[in-house]
Amino acid sequence: MNIKILGPGCKNCTKLMANTEAAVKELNIEATLEKVEDYAEIARLGVLKTPGLVIDDEVVSEGKVIAAKSIKQLISDRT
Q1: Per-residue pLDDT averaged across 38-56, rounded?
Q2: Is 65 exposed, middle or buried (0-12, 13-18, 19+ CB in 10 A)?
């Protein structure tokens, strides 16, 4: 599983990364976490508001920090 956190490195982006790391750890799954800060790449993915969360090339959230519990559900829906 490939998970991307999209954003310029703001506090919300950092929090979303921490929540995502916690979700992956709690689920005990193999996942590659990637921080994407390049605005061209973020735009290419169609995200207009950061932070964004992409799981296996599908944008699942943008413009908000979602809790680890919600991220776990989004991951589980794709496994």
Answers
A1: 94
A2: middle
Q: Quick: pLDDT tens for 48-62.
A: 999 999 999 999 999
Query: 58 pairs with which residues across the strands?
Result: 55
**DSSP3 helix / strand / coil % (the chain, rounded to 5):** 40, 25, 35
Residue 78, pLDDT above cutoff 90? no
Give the global pTM.
0.92
CA–centroid distance for 35 within its chain:
8
Q: CA-based angle 12:9:13, to the nearest 5? A: 25
Cis status of the peptide bond prior to 51, with omega within 30 of 0: yes
Structure tokens at 44: 């290419």
Q: Do the beta carbons of residue 51 and residue 21 sit within 8 Å? A: no
